[in-house]
Design goal:
Blueprint lengths: L1 H5 L4 H13 L8 H17 L15
Helix pairs in contact: 2-3
Amino acid sequence: MAQKLKRQGDPTAFKAKIQTIATNNNTRLDGTKGRIKAAHLAVAAAWNANRRVNRIPVPNIFE
C-alpha cells in the first residue's frame, strides 16, 4: 500500500488532491467528514488501479 501511495506523488500534492475532492473544486464547504471520505476515495483509487480482485469499495462522497 505504501508503494502505491508513493506513486501518487509527494505528500503535499496528495493532500491537495484530497482537499480538492472534498470541496468539489471549492464549490462545497465540508468539514472533516468530507475530507475523511475524500481521503478514503483517493486511497481506494490508488489501491484499485489495475486490479480486478481484492478491490476496496469506493463510497459515494456526494450523498
